[in-house]
Amino acid sequence: MKKIVFTLLINIQIVLANTCLQCHANKEAQCQKNIHFTLQKEISLTLKAWGVKDFNHTLQTLPPIDTTKKITEPKDLAIDFLRRKCLRCHLTSKEINPTNNKCLACHNPHTNSFDSFKAKASQEKCLKCHNANFIGTDYLRMFPKDFDESYRAPLQKDGSYPKRLGGIDYHHLISDIHAQKGLNCIDCHKPKQDFKASCLDCHSPSKKNHPSYHKNISCVACHSAWQTNSYKTILLRSDVPNYKDFERLIVSEDIYLENFLKKALLNPTMPPLMPDFLSNKLYKGLWYKGYTFRRWENFFLANYQGKIELARPLLDFELTYVNDKNQTIIDAQKFGGFVITKPHTITKEAKSCKMCHENPLNLNQKDTINYNLLKGKLLQGKPLNKEQIQRLISKKYKFLRAKEMFK
């Protein structure tokens, strides 16, 4: 009965959504250029990290999976990785929008009505995609836990675990001050501005609290309380049914993989198959993912568009590929690197001076992104230059900071 009701609801939603363009024809053209429709930045940056020369693509121009291509290096698997592991979230994704209608991805009907739609996208809809390792749920103080059921806690009174939001477990840290004040995503990220937002749209920093020598530092670099850092993304594409080795990934932020493993562990002869989330066709092989470790307290500084910004290892990869003959074709190959990030964990108070001026992650190496084991490249912007590093460690600026503090 529930299945029949759900199908009926979906069909009604599709009929209603198909009438949108009768009155909002201009919105169709706007949508075609929208960053959520093209995903150009995410796709291009990922392909660049994987070493693909022709990396400038959108969701609409992304080549199909080529099963005849010989796989010898990471770039040969880049399209396959995007289409079968990354791109589960897009406007017509079945995981976030069963109707397959791009209008409903954001402007879904109210739960208690079939004839009314939300002109303003709800924050809940934003977080369908903006979650886990990406900017979004951090706004609501949620930091994703490490994979594996052993990290699930705390137990509730009835002995069960808390509900997983979108299949993801979270630690709870400090929320963004704008969230505390009741602002939703769309209050700052307005469609007419292509969702770009600036602190200066609402705030005018005073000279007293923002000394001149900080004029080239972004607001977020100082005023974000924490950020999601998942160090060294470990990837494996396996074309062999060795499911027992990965049973602990039943909790892994990948709903398809979780459901597949639950079935495959009961039936070990099942062929390893994962869908192309754009075409919905099944292809050979499963993508497994994990991280070396996750932290929220450390951060890196970098130059980007004339400002000192924060960077994180979002696209820092280590790839292994095992073919259907159980041969290791690519063995723990490292590539990719760090990207600029703007955490949505803003607080009124800025970080302490020492967080930047005595942060070993930024000072121990000439190239401030090359730190100990974290030898990823900076895919956006440039590392801090010698002059900037000198300012971080010089006694002159230490004196100026002290002077400002005791005014």
What does this structure look like?
With 407 residues, this protein is of the alpha+beta class. It has a domain at 223-405. It is 26% helix and 17% strand. The chain contains 15 helices and 10 strands. The chain has helices at residues 2-17, 20-23, 25-33, 35-38, 40-49, 78-86, 123-126, 177-180, 185-188, 219-223, 255-264, 353-357, 360-363, 386-393, 395-405; strands spanning 142-144, 170-172, 229-238, 273-275, 282-284, 286-295, 300-304, 307-322, 328-341, 377-378. The strands form 3 sheets. Strands 3, 6, 7, 8, 9 and 10 form a 6-stranded mixed beta sheet that branches. Strands 1-2 form a two-stranded antiparallel sheet. Strand 8 and strand 9 (328-341) form a beta hairpin. It is globular and about 70 Å long.
Give a summary of the structure in a few sentences.
With 407 residues, this protein is of the alpha+beta class. It has helices at 2-17, 20-23, 25-33, 35-38, 40-49, 78-86, 123-126, 177-180, 185-188, 219-223, 255-264, 353-357, 360-363, 386-393, 395-405; strands spanning 142-144, 170-172, 229-238, 273-275, 282-284, 286-295, 300-304, 307-322, 328-341, 377-378. Helix content is 26%, strand content 17%.
Instruction: Sketch the topology as an H/E string, one letter per element.
Output: HHHHHHHEEHHHEHEEEEEEHHEHH
In DSSP terms, counting alpha (H) and pi (I) runs of 4 or more, how many helices? 15
- Structure classification: alpha+beta
Q: Tell me about the biggest sheet?
A: 6 strands, mixed
Fraction in beta strands: 15-25%
Work out the helicity level.
Answer: 25-40%
Give unreliable regions as ranges: 110-115
Number of strands: 10
N-C termini distance: 71 Å
